[in-house]
Specification:
Rossmann fold; 4 domains; nine-stranded mixed sheet; about 15% strand; Glycosyltransferase
Length: about 700
């Protein structure tokens, strides 16, 4: 929670005389008394997110808090909001409500409502949505239920996933008896490795190790947690401290008889302390940071208590499906369980199954995130509205095995049987899937962090946008606002979409008001990431781009042609509103296509950006008035070497503009035609006194 304890004890003069002089005591005081008196532990000019939630969904709030902490944004989780809290709100306090209770909640005047419910749930709260300043919604599909609300206020926000490092550290300690000490310590995350080492003395130093000579750990002595983290990050690449003798195998008896909650509490508590200073150690064991073996591969498949675990609320549909499974598999049914009981069942099971509660449901990503913490295989029914839940499906497609929604008469239950048997009876395939899950969790966490930063831009009113997003070469990045599913559906249903389906990735555009700023931020962020990822060029289209039937053939020719050119900055597939002062400097013929080189452009429908233009584009200034502010107007003013095919190879789909708030299809076509007439005139004039360049 980024508790600034030094600021806290110095701000309130009664604390130090009362003996509250360290972080542990300051935090305890704030939890017991300070927060109820409206005392702040952050400076008055700092942003503080106050997350209001309920106990059964606190994992969402905790994951979000981790992501905010990575952004150096302070936050606190509360379960009750009092009148005192509301009346003593600081202007930098940002209220975020994550709620799923029928109980009425006191609400501040200004708040973000994080909508995490199925819209046909009894917990769905339309009035709270209508009164909120901003809505974050975990599924695009839900937007159809409140279309009367202004689009500017609605943001897609996937349920945050953050790998619980403490959980993985404890799992590693739990694994010692099943594997061995070296693998177990290796499995502990770099950050919590230091905390676990710190914990040794406070709990019970391993028996059988003879303490004889002087030794201490200088890299953690008198260091803050952040210093420990920075140090261990460097150590991980090498070995544990050199020169420490390895004397033989042992295990940690100090964790054997402790409960999981006790271990977590101990590790959390010990973070503040350093490894005991001056402890003499001779026969200390050396733990090299070696590639770890798969824990799932090491543990016998017979060690799982259950084949399948299901948890969630009871209804007849779920019960009927589970009864069939119970006759065939070793299954644990957990209606209404949560917390430690749920987590223990997840760990004891090989597969977790997700079944929809509601008709017309979206996928239950809260459950996915809870299960993925433990690197478990999830088999889930698909969303019944794939065209509106596509972002969630794409987020989890490499982490979850999806099946068709099971029919009411259970006539297609065989599909579920086949997938269950495939993983339960093939340990090698199961282990490979678990390894893929571990790998792809990092991507999920990165995407959740991206959306959090994206959605906070408007809340914090930032004007500098550099949000990391991993890009790959040879991909068409389609700029698309997730909050506009109708445009997405028109795009993927265009007649020639099959030509690009394997080459395109939808990039979640940055949403900001006014829309032209959000559009510019999106392009700037894509170009920033293209440069960061060392791409030689990046292809970007917009989600109203219409592709021709022969796109694949033409795109190959375009790519070959651009490789043969010595110098170029931008390829522009179609131009709107070409300026009359445009200069045409060359005409090229290549493989029955005509290309021209000009110095102006004014369209972003389908462009290829060479790395030669990256630096200049990144100098765009949101505050500049010289070019009207819009990104295409700025690029037009840069005098890039622009390559354009003639005739144009792209056009626009007939959809409503998210930038201008109306259907501009006819208007755009008119501008395209005018630009085409102008460019053909320029070609004719050029060829009067110049020869075209023929490229072979």
């Amino acid at each position: 929670m980024n508790f600034d304890w030094k600021y806290y004890i110095n701000k309130y003069e009664d604390l130090i005389p009362a003996g509250i002089t360290n972080e542990r005591r300051a935090l305890a005081h704030w939890n017991r008394l300070g927060q109820h008196k409206g005392r702040r532990y952050v400076r008055d000019n700092e942003i503080l997110f106050i997350i209001i939630t309920t106990e059964c969904i606190k994992s969402i709030a905790i994951n979000l808090q981790h992501i905010l902490s990575k952004m150096n944004i302070k936050s606190i989780i509360k379960y009750i909001l009092s009148d005192y809290d509301i009346n003593n709100t600081n202007e930098n306090d940002k209220y975020l409500i994550i709620y799923n209770s029928r109980v009425d909640l006191k609400l501040p005047n200004v708040y973000i409502w994080y909508q995490i419910e199925q819209t046909n749930s009894t917990h769905f709260n339309l009035s709270a949505l209508q009164n909120s300043t901003i809505i974050w919604d975990y599924s695009i599909k839900n937007y159809n239920s409140y279309k009367e609300l202004p689009l500017n206020n609605i943001y897609y926000m996937p349920l945050p996933f953050y790998q619980n490092i403490t959980t993985e550290a404890i799992d590693a300690i739990d694994a010692i008896d099943a594997i061995d000490a070296i693998d177990a310590i290796d499995a502990i995350d770099a950050i919590d490795a230091i905390d676990a080492i710190d914990a040794i003395d406070a709990i019970d130093f391993p028996r059988g190790i003879h303490i004889v000579g002087p030794f201490h750990f200088p890299w953690v002595q008198s260091r803050s947690r952040s210093a420990k983290i920075a140090t261990i990050d460097a150590i991980v690449e090498n070995d544990f401290p050199r020169g420490i003798p390895i004397v033989g195998p042992f295990h940690f008896p100090w964790v054997q008889s402790r409960s999981r909650s006790a271990k977590i509490a101990t590790i959390d508590a010990i973070v503040e302390n350093d490894f005991p200073r001056g402890i003499p150690i001779v026969d200390l064991f050396h733990f090299p940071w070696v590639p770890s073996r798969s824990r799932s591969a090491t543990i016998d498949s017979n060690s799982y208590k259950y084949d399948i675990f299901f948890y969630g609320a009871y209804n007849c549909r779920r019960s009927n499906i589970l009864n069939l499974l119970n006759a065939k598999y070793k299954i644990k049914i957990g209606f209404g369980i949560f917390g430690d009981e749920r987590d223990n069942c997840i760990k004891s099971s090989k597969i977790i199954i997700n079944l929809h509660y509601y008709d017309d449901a979206v996928i239950e990503t809260t459950r996915f995130n809870e299960v993925l913490q433990f690197n478990k295989l999830i088999i889930s029914e698909k969303s019944s509205s794939l065209e509106y839940d596509y972002y969630n499906i794409n987020l989890y497609k490499d982490l979850v095995v999806f099946i068709d929604v099971i029919n009411e008469d259970l006539s297609n239950i065989h599909q579920l049987y086949a997938i269950l048997d495939n993983y339960l009876n093939n340990q090698h395939k199961y282990d490979n899937k678990i390894e893929l899950i571990k790998k792809h969790k990092n991507k999920l966490m990165d995407r959740c962090e991206y959306f959090t930063k994206r959605n906070l831009l408007s809340v914090l009113e930032l004007t500098i946008v550099k949000i990391d997003y991993e890009l790959k070469p040879n991909i068409i990045y389609c700029l698309h606002l997730p909050e506009t599913p109708d445009r997405y559906n028109v795009f993927i249903n265009q007649p020639n979409y099959y030509n690009i389906v394997d080459k395109i990735e939808f990039y979640p555009a940055i949403k900001y008001h006014p829309g032209w700023k959000g559009c510019a931020f999106s392009y700037i962020n894509l170009i920033y990431n293209a440069q960061r990822c060392n791409l030689k060029q990046i292809t970007i289209c917009e989600d109203d781009c219409c592709f021709n039937k022969d796109y694949n053939i033409k795109y190959d020719i375009i790519s070959e042609f651009l490789k043969k050119l010595n110098e170029w900055d931008l390829f522009v597939g179609v131009i709107a509103d070409l300026p009359h002062d445009t200069t045409l400097s060359n005409v090229y013929y290549y493989k029955n296509m005509t290309f021209v080189e000009i110095n102006k452009m004014n369209s972003m429908v389908f462009n290829i950006y060479n790395n030669t233009c990256f630096d200049k584009i990144l100098k765009w200034d949101v505050h500049s008035k010289d070019t009207g502010g819009t990104i295409d107007a700025y690029i037009k003013s840069c005098n890039f070497k622009v390559i354009v095919p003639v005739p144009f190879e792209f056009s626009c789909l007939n959809v409503e503009s998210t930038l201008w708030g109306s259907n501009c299809f006819d208007y755009y076509n008119s501008m395209f035609n005018n630009s085409y007439v102008l460019i053909t005139t320029l070609i004719k004039n050029f060829l009067v006194s110049n020869n075209p360049t023929i490229i072979y």
